[in-house]
């Protein structure tokens, strides 16, 4: 319980420190959008069917605070249980033009009707607290990025109730072909601790997310268009594959 309280304090302190560091008047940016997807696949693992995923974000200077959620349609009409519901809160800070970004997130996917969102007891909470460090190469023609995420507190426990420190590493390479923005992804679990969250009985290193995503726009009028995307995803460890289509709605 003590370690979880410390983790929450670290999360809150980071948010406060980032705001304190923005004493000068800087441009503020808000992000309001929603994605409708044919299925929700996270880090190569299938989560739910057709889902709506809203985003509310705020950025000032090099700091950003983002709320992201997901809820499906299948569970709401199914006799098997309530709809899936996920709410993720992420605070991130980019260190100028260094290409380095540090983030802390609270991931919660307790589901509709689960409640107890504010239960932060170490062995009872449904929150997963995750720290991330991402770096983008300072090469304009080769903007490869690599990110490492580790769950350091919360519900990520091993069979003996100890913190599991599940980790995930992801490489991304964005590029464009004509009017389509593309992104190649390769994600993997670096060691056995990934079993706790991802449910993969791997003995160590495991590639779980190889994907190609394409984004373009459907032009409605000269001044209005709708972004759409498609993503092919392969999970070698699970011997599984997914094809996801999505529509983005934003002002």
TrEMBL record:
Secretion signal span: 1-27
The entry's keywords: Signal
Protein name per Swiss-Prot or TrEMBL: FrrB
